Write the structure tokens for this entry.
Amino acid sequence: MELNRRTVIAGATAAGIAAGAGGTAHAAGGSRPVKELFGSLTDGTKVHRWSLANGGTRLKVLSYGGIVQALEISDRRGRYANVSLGFDNLADYVSSSPYFGALVGRYGNRLDKGRFTLDGRTYQLSVNDGENTLHGGAQGFDKRVWDVEPFVKGTDVGLYLRYTSADGEMGFPGTLRTKVTYTLTRHGDWRIDYEATTDRATVVNLTSHVYWNLAGESSGTVYDHQLAIEASRFTPVDAGLIPTGELARVAGTPFDFRRAKSVGEDIRVPHQQVLYGQGLDHNWVLDKGITSRPEHIATLRDPSSGRTLRIATNEPGLQFYSGNFLDGTLTGSGGSVYRQGDGLCLETQHFPDSPNQPAFPSTVLRPGRTYRTSTVHSFDV
Ligand code: GLA
């Protein structure tokens, strides 16, 4: 990795990321997003970092993977912290990122044995997680360079991110034209709108893989964060984390977050599902189901700083992953080593392995239709 860093990557590093309140010079209100060079890939492709700010939220986004490299919000005393895990250099994102902050596609989460059948034809995909496909295969959307266009619209500021996935890429059928919009509103909400069209029937499940730590990345584990999820059921998995097809009740299990509880409270309960996930790494079946507009589904709160994240989505599922596979081998943007539980992901989505589970809501996209989903992250103290 050292070799990579020195020989492969040119360009700016992320000085100022962890610098706190004074570290970034954004005007109050919706200033135009600013672009700078972040690094270059081995083939010479330049990767840029876009900085935007609005309503007290500051976002730094890479053209590589649409990665949220930093998301800064203040605590109740006005102190800013980067509440999203990441790296300060491109080489680490390329070589060893566990999807830090990334846009995930074409199919977020797992597909059993990297295979599915659609309209009588079976597709074999790139397999990258044991015998399964995870997050779109070995070179998913998180490892692609997106075309980024900034915008200021009324009181909103944001970025359009576009990527066209070729027919057959990672084994998926259909040319998928993807457009993701990151918007910061004047209230400081971060909204994601996903859109996609195809020229052949395919499956799509796009999500965002931010690792949250509302006390600030590098501050230790998130086990004392309070989490509430509006879901009475979850999808139990097998040892390879593929859903069994059952929609099990959360009542009386470690998976019951209907009333806020601390993330760490039941993480050491020797429940078979917790053992499979080495913690929590499951899809919650949201009580509201699929909705036409984003509706509130989860609240995460750090008692020490008061920082609170509220999530609304129109998706039917939420993958809550408690950072179980962080193992002390990665150094984060703030200079600390990331260990198990140092961040958690709340990935709004359709259920894992839906193409192989006829009873799950469909993830099929056909020509002439537009895939559209939205998720809104609101911050508060
Ligand atoms: C997802 C999965 C986890 C893990 C992480 C990346 O959220 O559900 O099992 O693979 O991505 O480390």
